[in-house]
C-alpha cells in the first residue's frame, strides 16, 4: 500500500469515527455530545436539527455509507479514490460552511470529518 493510501485510509477511518458519534446522537443513543469551548460550537443542536437531514434522513448515517465507500476505494488502491475523497471534501465543506453561513454555528464533530477529508484529499491529490 502506498504511503498516500495509508494516510487517506487513516483519515477516512477518523471521519467514520466522527460520523459514528454524530449518528449515535442523531438516533438518540447519546443524549449530549462533548462540545468544544466557545459559543460558536453547537454540535448537539446542529446534529439534531432539521437542517442535519438530507431527503428526510439524518446526515450522519448517510455520511457513514459514503465514507465506507471511500475506505473501500482507498484500500483497494482504486484510481477512483482520488475523485471520491475530493467529493467527500466538497460535501463536508458545503454542509459545514452552509450551516455556519446560515446559523453562525459550527459542529465540532463535523469539523473532524471535514479535516479528515482535507487530509485524504491532500494525500491522494498531492502524490506524484
Describe the protein's architecture and organization.
This is Vitamin K epoxide reductase. It is a single chain. This protein has 128 residues and is mostly helical. It has a single domain (3-126), classed as Up-down Bundle (de novo design (two linked rop proteins)), CATH 1.20.1440.130. The protein contains five helices and two strands. It has helices at 3-26, 43-47, 59-75, 81-103, 108-126, and strands at residues 53-54, 57-58. Strands 1-2 form a two-stranded antiparallel sheet. Strand 1 (53-54) and strand 2 form a beta hairpin. It is elongated, with a radius of gyration of 15 Å. The two termini are 15 Å apart. The mean pLDDT is 92.
Uncertain ranges:
none
Overall CATH class: Mainly Alpha
Specify the number of helices: 5
Report the end-to-end length measured between terminal Cα atoms.
Answer: 15 Å
Helix content: 55-70%
Element layout with pairings:
Layout: H1 3-26, H2 43-47, E1 53-54, E2 57-58, H3 59-75, H4 81-103, H5 108-126
Helix pairs in contact: 1-3, 1-5, 3-4, 4-5
